[in-house]
Amino acid sequence: MKLSIDAFNLARPHGTGIATYGRILARTAKALGHDVSLLFGDKTGYSKDPLLNEIALIEAGRQDRKRLPVPVLVQRGIEALSGTLKARGGFEVPMSGQVVMPVGLPPEADRLWNVQNLYSGADIGFRAARRFTSIANYGVDLAHWTYPLPVRMPKARNVYTLHDLVPLKLPYTTADTKRVYYRMCRRIAREADHILTVSECSRRDIIEMLGVEPGRVTNLYQASDAAQTLEGVGEADIARYVEGVLGIPPKGYFLFFSAIEPKKNVAHLLEAYLGSGTQTPLVIVGAPGWGSVHDMALIKSMAALDTGKRVRWLGFLPRATLTRLIAGARAVLFPSLYEGFGLPVLEAMELGTPVITSNTSCLQEVGGDAPHYVDPYDVQSILTAIRTVDADSALRADMASKGLVQAKHFSAASYQARLAKFYGTFQ
């Protein structure tokens, strides 16, 4: 089967959970024998020089993120209102091998396509007239959209992955325009050939909040490639790396890693950590996201006041560095308010690291009996968990052991089997 997978998140300079999802999806689909294309929406138009097309497409961080020129904005709005909105400028970008591919682009893809201004233009069209942008079908049987995007491909089956409905469940934690987001999800709910999601919790939300028939929503969960990133790297290598980067012995620090944004609950985490009295340092890894002004100010002020250097913020780190720090941590702290899947929990378990996480949304579904669960709204609950896990090495060993077992439920092989069964229904 010929598949098109959107690259909306893949080209971002800072990795996201959805980028990880897209990368693993493309890799798995290719392993199943499908013909896989990645669909970009870069603002660069077609050049007669193939090398320039290649360079423009994979230039890190340039994927359709800049504001469109005013004439283009006006034209897209007019087209949307008149009902003539269609994507233009689609072309294949052959890979010569002369330009080094960024980490976010899976080499397993058979080909790359670009449709100029696709995603930003589609967003404008939907906001103006609540219409989806149609893109010319370039020989595709199934278009798999890994994010709620107002785009469809005629003459193909259109499948959309809705990871969660956090903008609707916790509207104060995201920057989305809620009316637009809700209308887009409702449109997907009505017109998609099928909807995928990544947990039973998210599946229930989609059915209940969007009114989707249960038979049109499938939970395939997702997989992690954290362990694959560390293939061939031994414990001694990780120990040397951790001490070299942090100056802290392995298993001598707590770790939080994620984008810094309201739903991640960093303020409560910091309050609980400092109140616990532990001398085990807390390392925070993540780039500032939307609504992070308060949390970032708190992180920086705590780091400045903390003469013992217990709180350290490292910002965004490359994948290879992050996985080593996860594997070397005493425990991962992830008291998020709400998640569609909670990839950091799976990544920590897969690498044999204990996890303290929330008893909300899907996190117990993913973590099973391995993590120490807390009420994310209760600072005392988080504080007590930090003290308990910090002081008990036998408990940490038991949590790590259970985590390795639980992570197998989300292995690459099990994900491949679920995806093969789902795609098989379209063949």
UniProtKB/TrEMBL annotation:
<feature type="domain" description="Glycosyltransferase subfamily 4-like N-terminal">
    <location>
        <begin position="16"/>
        <end position="218"/>
    </location>
</feature>
<dbReference type="Pfam" id="PF00534">
    <property type="entry name" value="Glycos_transf_1"/>
</dbReference>
<dbReference type="InterPro" id="IPR001296">
    <property type="entry name" value="Glyco_trans_1"/>
</dbReference>
<keyword id="KW-0808">Transferase</keyword>
<dbReference type="Pfam" id="PF13579">
    <property type="entry name" value="Glyco_trans_4_4"/>
</dbReference>
<protein>
    <submittedName>
        <fullName>Glycosyltransferase family 1 protein</fullName>
    </submittedName>
</protein>
<dbReference type="InterPro" id="IPR028098">
    <property type="entry name" value="Glyco_trans_4-like_N"/>
</dbReference>
<feature type="domain" description="Glycosyl transferase family 1">
    <location>
        <begin position="251"/>
        <end position="403"/>
    </location>
</feature>
